[in-house]
C-alpha cells in the first residue's frame, strides 16, 4: 500500500490485505481487511502507532523505507493482538533505539506473545503524554475493546483519535478516508457484531468519553479513516443502546423439511402481523451475517430438529455463538420437530444464559407440521406481536 498523508505530520503506512477471507479461523472477511499503521513526525521525535499482521511484514518494511523514515523513537502498541503487533519484533530490530509504549497488561501480553523484552517497554496510563516536539500523543486506557489491555491514543494538535479496534471495519479499500458509506456501514456493523457486541455496556461509556474530545479524524486499526466522526459515533450509539427493531430472526436447520416448513409458516404469520422477519438457513452460512442480524433483532427463534437426543449440531454451534456475542435480544424461543424423543428445548435454552431474553413458550412437534401446528404458531406470532407492540425498547 502506498504511503499516504493524513495531515502534514501524520502518515498512513499500513497495508491492505485484499485476499484474506478468514480471521482467527472463525470470522469471515468477505471484503478483506486493512492493517492500519501511522507514522507521526515531530520536530524532535518520530512515533509509530501500531504495526501490521506478520504476513504483511515485507510490505510494511517497504512502506517504512518509502516514507523516508530512518529513525523511530517510540512505537505505540494500542493492542497486543498479532494483527496489530505482529511486526513489532522486526521494528525493534530495525530501530534499536525505539521504546514501546503500552499499558501494563499489554506489556505482559507482548512478552508472552512476541518475546518483547521488558527493558524496551514504557508502561503508560490514562492521561500520560508523549511530546514529540510540536506534536504530542496522549494515552487513554480503554480495556475490553476488545481485549483487556487495549488503549487509544489521541493527538490533540491534529485532532486525531487512533481508536484501535473501536469504530473499525474489515474492509479492504484503496481509499484512505471513507467514501462508500453504504458499504462501510455494513462492514462496520458486521465488525461490531463479531468483535465488539459482547462488550457493548463498556463501549457505551467509551463513546461518551470520545464525544468529549475535540476530534476531526477517527483512525481505527482496520478499514478506512473517518473524517466525519459523528457518522460512526451515531451508528455505535444505536448499536450499543438497549433499543431493538421490530424484527424476528429465525436461525434454522432442517434435516427432512419439517422444521423448515414450520419456519416458513411462522415467517408468513409474522409478516401478516407487520413484523419484520429474517429466516436464516444455517447450512453453510456466513456466521458474520448471523452475528450482524443479532445486533438489533427484538426476538430470536431458534429452529432445529432433534438429532438422537438433542439439537442439531449446526444449531448447537449457532446457539453457542449467539450466547458468546451477548445480543440485546428481548425475546427468544425454540421451534422444530422430532421423531421419537429427546431434550432439545432444554439443551438449547441452557446454552444461552447470556441472552437475557424473556422465553416465549416453544412449539415443538412430532413429525411433520399440520393445522394444529399452524394454530400453535399463530399463538406464538400473536404473543410476539403483543410483546413487540407494548415494549418501549422495540422500535417500530
Describe the structure.
The chain is an alpha/beta fold and 396 residues long. Helices cover 34% and strands 25% of the residues. It has twelve helices and 25 strands. The chain has helices at residues 57-66, 82-85, 88-94, 104-114, 181-196, 200-211, 229-240, 258-272, 287-294, 313-325, 344-350, 371-390; strands at 4-5, 10-12, 15-17, 22-23, 27-28, 33-35, 38-41, 46-49, 74-76, 99-102, 121-123, 129-131, 136-141, 151-155, 160-164, 217-220, 244-252, 276-281, 297-303, 306-307, 310-311, 331-338, 358-359, 363-366, 394-395. The strands form six sheets. The protein has a seven-stranded mixed beta sheet. Strands 17, 18, 19, 22, 23, 24 and 25 form a seven-stranded parallel beta sheet that branches. A five-stranded mixed beta sheet has the order 12-13-14-15-16, with no helix packed on it. A hairpin with a 4-residue loop joins strand 7 and strand 8. Helix 6 runs antiparallel to helix 7, helix 8 (258-272) crosses helix 12 (371-390) and helix 9 crosses helix 10. The longest helix has 20 residues, at 371-390. It is elongated. 49% of the residues are buried. The model has no long low-confidence stretch (mean pLDDT 96).
